[in-house]
Amino acid sequence: MFPGLNKRMCAGLVAGSLMLPMGSVAAVSAQEVPGDFTGIVREKIPAVVAITTRQFVEDQTNLMPFSDFFGPFNGGQSPVQPQVREALGSGFVISQDGYIVTNNHVVQEASEIHVVFSDKETSPAQLVGRDPATDIAVLKIDPRPNLTPIVWGDSDAVQPGAWTIAIGSPFGLGGTVTVGVLSARSRDIQVGPYDDFLQTDASVNQGNSGGPLFNTRGEVIGVNTAIVSPTGGSIGIGFAVPSRTARTVVDQLIRTGRIERGFIGVRLQEITPATAEALGMPGSEGALVASVEPGGPAEKAGVQSGDVITRFNGKEIKSARDLTLAVTSQKPGTETTLTMNRGGAEQQAALTVSQREEEEVQTSAVPTPETDDSLGLALSPIPEEVRPQLGLQPDASGVFVQGVAPNSLAAESGLQPGDVIVSANDRNVTQPSEVEEELVESRQEKRPVLLRISRQGQSLFAALDVS
C-alpha cells in the first residue's frame, strides 16, 4: 500500500481475505470533445488489463484447540499453515514488447503476478521495478500478437474542467469505463514527499488502482492511485499520478530498475506568517532552510540554515514542497542555480545536484521540567541518558522540551515533546531560564520569538507569536 496512505484514501483496500487495490504529447481543447467516448474506449480497452496477485504467507496460528485434551502434538507446536492472499488491481500496456504500468501497492508483496486482458487471456508477469515514493511499478510479460500500447499524454496541458476517462477493473469487473472532469491539479494529499496528484471526479473504486486516466485524445494523463472516501466507495474524489511524473519513473525503472532523484542536502520547512515576521521577511513565500547537510551540494554552494530559497533552476519557489519537487526532478550531476534570501538580501548560488539516499531516523525521550503555562511548554536541561536517542553529539547543547500541552501556543507552533531548543532569537541556549528571557523580550517588543530546534537529529525552526 502507498506509504502513509490510510485505508479510506487508497483505492486498494482490504476486504476480508481478499485485498482489492485500486510517444506523442498534445494539449486538450474544448473543441476536441467528442459527442461520446465510444471510439476511444473501443481503441484503448484492449491495452487496459486487470492484474491479479497471490501472496503466500506462513500462518503460525494454533489450529488445534483440543490439544490440551489429547496430549502434545508436534512438540506442542502447531504445524505452519501456508495462507494465500489474493489481490486485484489494474494496469495498462505501454510497449509492444510487453511492458505494463501499474501501482506499487498492487504488486509490492506479490509472490505471483498475472495479467488478464480484455479477451480473458492471462499471462504471467515479472516485476521489473517499483517506486514506493510515487506508487508506480512496471511489469513485463512475453509479447503477444496484436499488442497495442497506450500513448502517454501531457498532464500539464490538461486544465480543470477538461474531460477525463478512467478504464480499469473495479471490484474485479474488467473493462469498466467511467467519465468525469479534471477537478484539480497538483493536489497534495499528505501521503508522501512527492505528492502532486491530478484530481478527477470520474468514478475510481477498489480495483481501479494502477489503471489509466485518459484525456479526450485517448492519451494517458495519469495513473489512478487513490480515493478519498468515508466508506471505501467512490464519492467523486479520485487521484492519479500525473503522466509527467509516471512517465519519468517508468522510463528509469525500465532502463535501470531503480530511481535516481536529485538531492542538494537541505532540510526544509514551510514559512508561517509568524516565522516570516521573525525572519524580517515581507511575505511567507519560499522554502526555509532548517538545516544543511555537512558536505552536501548546498553546503558547498554556501547555503546556510535560515536562508529562504526563492528560485531554483530558474523556477519560482513558493513553498518547501515546490523546492522538493523541483530538486528531485533533476538528474544527479545536473549543474543548476538557486536564489535565496538571507537577512533581507538576495543572493545567488551555483551547485551540482547529487543522488538522493533515502533514510529513516527514529528516536525517543524522557526527564524534570520548568513549565511556562502561558505557552503550554515544559522545559528542562538535556538529560544525559537520552542524548543517544535524540541523535545528539556528546558536546551538543540546548534545552529539552519535555512536554507540550494540547491546543497550546507551543503546540500550534509545531513544538513536540523530545525537541531540543538550540537557540532563541539567534541566542544559543543551555538552560530553560535563557529561553524564558528571550520569550519575555519578544513579548515586550511585540514580535514572535524564533526558535531553532533539533528533532531526531535534524534542525528546523519554530516561531512562537508571543506578542
TrEMBL record:
Alphabetized PROSITE patterns for the sequence: PDZ
Keyword Membrane: no
Extent of the signal sequence: 1-26
Alphabetical UniProt keywords: Hydrolase, Periplasm, Protease, Repeat, Serine protease, Signal
Region of interest called Disordered, as start-end residue ranges on this chain: 353-373
GO molecular function, one term: serine-type endopeptidase activity
Annotated binding of substrate, by residue: H105, D135, G207, N208, S209
Compartments (UniProt record): Periplasm
BP term (GO), one: proteolysis
InterPro entries referenced in this protein's UniProt entry, alphabetically: Chloro_Bact_Ser_Proteases, PDZ, PDZ_6, PDZ_sf, Pept_S1C_Do, Peptidase_S1_PA, Peptidase_S1C
Domain PDZ: 253-344, 365-457
One annotated Gene Ontology cellular component of this protein: periplasmic space
Domain of life: Bacteria
A Pfam short name: PDZ_6
Residues in coiled coil: none
Active site, UniProt feature: H105, D135, S209
Transmembrane segments: none
Entry keyword annotation includes Transmembrane helix: no
PANTHER family tied to this protein: PEPTIDASE S12, PROTEASE DO-LIKE 8, CHLOROPLASTIC
Protein name: Protease Do
